[in-house]
Design a protein that fits this description.
The structure is a single chain. The protein is of the alpha/beta class. It has one domain (about 35-335): Aldolase class I (TIM Barrel), CATH 3.20.20. It contains twelve helices and ten strands. The protein has helices at about 1-15, 25-30, 70-80, 110-120, 155-170, 180-190, 215-220, 240-250, 265-275, 285-295, 305-315, 325-335, and strands at about 40-50, 55, 65, 85-90, 125-130, 170-175, 200-205, 255-260, 280-285, 320-325. Strands 1, 2, 3, 4, 5, 6, 7, 8, 9 and 10 form a ten-stranded mixed β-sheet that branches. Helix 3 crosses helix 4 (about 110-120), helix 4 packs parallel to helix 5 and helix 5 crosses helix 6. The longest helix has 15 residues, at about 305-315. The protein binds ligand PBG.
C-alpha cells in the first residue's frame, strides 16, 4: 500500500525525466551533442636527421623522433585513418644562437614537408614556427647580452622561417613563440614572398605551462637557462587571453589556438564565444598525453575511454580542432 502511494507521488512530481533519453544506445546516440571525428584531429610529428630512425621518446610512450622516410610512413597511417593534418617539429643537425637550420632550404622540416607533400598531396601539412628547437640557448627568440629574449629582432627570423616552410610546400604555418607582432610579421613576409593565400594558425593563447615537459625532451627544446615566463602567459590570466586573441585576429590570424587544453577549458570556451568567426584549435599537449598514458600503463584507467572522454571534453568546450598525440589511436577507436 505504502509502495503504491509512493509510485503515484513520484509519477506526479516528476514530469521531467532526463533519464528517458538515456534509456537505449540508439536514443543516446540520437541526442549526443558532441561527437568526435577524425577530421577534428591534427597529429604532431617530430622529424630528425638520418634514415630509418624511430627514436622513442621515453616520456611519451608511443611517440618517437622520426627520420624523414619514417615521417612519411607515419603520415601514411595518419591519412589512412582519415586524419586531415600533421603538425611538424624539427630537430636540427646543429644548433647556434640564431638557429640557422630553421630557415634553411634543406632544413629538416623543409625536407619533411617536401617528402610528405610528394607522397600525400592531400595531407594538410602544418609547421611549427619558433626558434627554441634550433637555438643553442633553447630560447624562442634572439637574446641580448643579458640573456633577455628580444622581441622585434626575432620577428624577421620568424617571417623567414615561415617563408622557407611555404616554399617547401607547407599548407599552414603555426607560430608558437608568443612574440608580440609575430602574426603581422609573418603575414607581411608571406604576402611579399607570394604566399598571400597561405593561412596562419596562431598559437594565440599559450601559457607558461609545466605540461610541456615531455615535449621538451621530444623536441630537445628546453631553455638552457631561465624560463619562458616573459613571453608565455601566466596561468592565472583569463581576460588577457582575449587581448592576445584579439591582437592576433587584427594581425591576420586565420586560426586561433589555446594551449594547453585541459587546465584551460574555460579559455577555450571564452575564445569560442568571443571569436565565433575563426576556427579554434586546442593543443592537447605532451604532459596531458603522458598523464593518461602513465595511468593506463599502470592499469589505473581504461585508456580508450579516458582518451575519448578527454578529447570530447576539449571539443565540447569549443575547440573545432584538437592537436593531439592520441590522434592515431583515437581515430582507430572511432572506426
Ligand atoms: C615551442 C613549442 C612548445 C610546444 C609546442 N611548440 C614548447 C614550449 O613552448 O616550451 C609544446 C607542445 C607540447 O608540450 O606538446 N616551439
Amino acid at each position: 500500500m505504502i509502495e503504491r502511494v509512493l509510485t503515484q507521488a513520484t509519477t506526479l512530481e516528476l514530469p521531467i525525466r532526463p533519464r528517458r533519453l538515456r534509456a537505449t544506445p540508439g536514443l543516446r546516440r540520437m541526442v549526443r551533442e558532441t561527437e568526435l571525428n577524425p577530421a577534428d584531429f591534427i597529429y604532431p610529428i617530430f622529424v630528425t636527421h638520418g634514415h630509418k630512425i624511430r627514436q622513442p621518446i621515453a616520456t611519451m610512450p608511443g611517440i618517437a623522433q622520426l627520420s624523414v622516410d619514417e615521417a612519411v610512413r607515419e603520415a601514411e597511417k595518419t591519412a589512412e585513418l582519415n586524419i586531415p593534418a600533421v603538425l611538424l617539429f624539427g630537430l636540427p643537425a646543429h644548433k647556434d644562437p640564431i638557429g640557422e637550420e630553421n630557415f634553411a632550404t634543406d632544413g629538416i622540416v623543409q625536407q619533411a614537408i617536401r617528402a610528405i607533400k610528394q607522397a600525400f598531396p592531400e595531407m594538410v601539412v602544418i609547421t611549427d614556427v619558433c626558434l627554441c628547437e634550433y637555438t643553442d640557448h633553447g630560447h624562442c627568440g634572439l637574446l641580448d647580452d643579458h640573456g633577455h629574449v628580444l622581441n622585434d629582432e626575432t620577428l624577421p627570423i620568424l617571417a623567414d622561417v615561415a617563408i622557407s616552410h611555404a616554399e617547401a610546400g607547407a599548407d599552414v604555418v603555426a607560430p608558437s613563440g608568443m612574440m608580440d607582432g609575430m602574426v603581422a610579421a609573418i603575414r607581411a613576409g608571406l604576402d611579399v614572398a607570394g604566399f598571400s593565400q597561405l593561412p596562419i594558425m596562431s598559437y594565440a593563447v599559450k601559457y607558461a605551462s609545466a605540461f610541456y615537459g615531455p615535449f621538451r625532451d621530444a623536441a630537445d627544446g628546453a631553455p638552457k637557462f631561465g624560463d619562458r615566463k616573459t613571453h608565455q602567459m601566466d596561468p592565472g590570466n583569463g581576460r588577457e587571453a582575449l587581448r592576445e586573441a584579439a591582437l592576433d585576429v587584427a594581425e591576420g590570424a586565420d586560426f586561433l589556438m589555446v594551449k594547453p587544453a585541459l587546465a584551460y577549458l574555460d579559455i577555450i570556451r571564452q575564445l569560442r564565444d568571443n571569436f565565433p568567426e575563426l576556427p579554434l584549435a586546442a593543443y592537447n599537449v605532451s604532459g596531458e598525453y603522458t598523464m593518461l598514458k602513465a595511468a593506463a600503463a599502470n592499469g589505473w584507467l581504461d585508456e580508450e575511454r579516458a582518451v575519448l572522454e578527454t578529447l570530447t571534453g576539449i571539443k565540447r568546450a569549443g575547440a573545432d580542432l584538437i592537436i593531439t598525440y592520441h590522434a592515431l589511436a583515437a581515430a582507430a577507436w572511432l572506426k
